[in-house]
Automatic annotation (TrEMBL):
It comes from Lacticaseibacillus pantheris DSM 15945 = JCM 12539 = NBRC 106106. It holds the Pfam family HMG_CoA_synt_N. Residues 2-165 form the Hydroxymethylglutaryl-coenzyme A synthase N-terminal domain. Substrate binds at residue 148. Gene3D superfamilies: 3.40.47.10. This is 3-hydroxy-3-methylglutaryl CoA synthase. It comes from the Bacteria. The active site is at 79 (proton donor/acceptor), 111 (acyl-thioester intermediate), 233 (proton donor/acceptor). (3S)-3-hydroxy-3-methylglutaryl-CoA binds at residues 29, 143, 242, 275. GO terms for biological process: acetyl-CoA metabolic process.
Length: 390
């Protein structure tokens, strides 16, 4: 039985800061951000956006086109949870109008949470082939204003419906994964700002890729020649390239060129949205499928997932006949082009205007409400969500 991704949706806040503007405000050569890091724009999440609203908005792209009575599992992969006990998945279930006879929960392992959810959903469908599973990878990456990681912030979500006989891509049963207890990146419970050892984290990312890729080749007998493209977890678009360069010498120059061309297409959306942690690998997949005119049915795609702390996994998928009919390329491009560009000063105001780490009531600024689902505020320590007219 083939199992994989039947539907794909994505969402990112309606506001962004141009990284040329940010570089100039920080007294940095813009090319350091645009070329050196590989980022052009960065999504900015107002306080009316969290992983619940973004995840629900991503799933809303296809929720009205599927049989929701078949959904038996909802998983939210995130490292930007809204509560230390209650999962955001159960709120997403309610907002989307899904049946109550659904298992819902949240998974955390840094940027690996989306892949953990995907693989769990695959196993669920294997045991329940008449059911589907909704997996949402959503995050808001925050390092702080004027911090070393400021240029690698971002916000967004990717939603995936997992089913038997999927319309978009099968998930092959060929995963290689590994875990090591390291301190390259973490976020203590008392803050929404991440702590990172930048150089060390990059080294570990590359090391994990090299190790799982070598073992994957040993176990499957496959090489880069067997792949039409390889997608990477993208904290910033140059990160994946640093790992990819270690494997590319294995193939001919013509194949290297083809793979690098595909890689660039997989980074189009990330370059404009920024880091979305658990969703970054899958944002790259959406970008590849919607921007690369060369990938076609039957192509094998590689997927490298990494979550600091750390877990790495490499697996593959195969594109299905007619997959392009279930994408939203035009709508995504139009949406990204229609976003509101913030000045650096306004970006800083929005960044600092956040739901407080306290028991105080809070109201979101109404001028920044956007999307079908929004967080209007907090009353008596309960988050208030609302569905807005489309």
């Amino acid at each position: 039985m083939q199992i994989g991704i039947d539907r794909l949706g994505m969402y990112s806040p309606h506001f962004f800061v141009d990284l040329k503007d940010l570089a100039e405000a920080r007294g940095v050569d813009p090319n350091k951000f645009i070329i050196g890091i590989g980022q052009s724009e960065q999504a900015v999440a107002p306080s009316s956006e969290d992983v619940v609203t973004m995840g629900a908005n991503a799933a809303a792209e296809f929720i009205d086109d599927i049989d929701t009575s078949k959904v038996g599992l909802v998983i939210l992969g995130t490292e930007t949870g809204i509560d230390a006990s209650k999962s955001g998945a159960v709120i997403i279930q309610r907002l989307l109008g899904l049946p109550e006879w659904v298992r819902t929960y949240e998974i955390k392992q840094a940027c690996y949470g989306g892949t953990a959810g995907l693989m769990t959903a695959r196993d669920y469908v294997a045991a329940h082939p008449d059911k589907t599973a909704l997996v949402i990878a959503a995050d808001i990456a925050r390092y702080g204003l004027n911090s070393g990681g400021e240029v690698t912030q971002g916000a967004g979500a990717v939603a995936m419906l997992i089913s038997a006989n999927p319309a978009i891509m099968t998930i092959n049963d060929d995963s290689v994964f590994m875990s090591r207890d390291i301190m390259d990146f973490w976020r203590p419970v008392y803050t929404d700002l991440a702590l990172a050892k930048g150089k060390y984290s990059t080294e570990q990312y590359i090391k994990f890729f090299d190790d799982v890729w070598a073992r994957y080749q040993q176990q499957t007998g496959l090489t880069l020649d067997d792949f039409a493209a390889v997608n990477f977890h993208l904290p910033y678009t140059k990160m994946g390239l640093k790992a990819f360069w270690t494997a590319l010498p294995e193939v001919s120059e013509d194949k290297q060129t083809a793979l690098l061309d595909a890689y660039q297409e997989s980074t189009v959306y990330s370059r404009r949205i920024g880091n979305i942690y658990t969703g970054s690998l899958y944002l790259g997949l959406v970008s590849l499928l919607e921007n690369d005119g060369h990938v076609q049915a039957g192509d094998r795609l590689g997927m490298f997932s990494y979550g600091s702390g750390a877990v790495g996994e490499f697996f593959s998928g195969e594109l299905q006949e007619g997959f392009a009919r279930f994408l939203h390329a035009d709508a995504h491009r139009e949406y990204l082009d229609s976003r509101q560009r913030l000045s650096v000063a306004e970006y800083e105001r929005v960044f600092n205007n956040k739901v407080p780490y306290s028991a105080d009531d809070y109201s979101a600024d109404p001028q920044y409400l956007s999307g079908r689902y929004v967080l209007t505020g907090v009353e008596n320590q309960e988050r208030q969500y609302e569905e807005r007219p489309e």
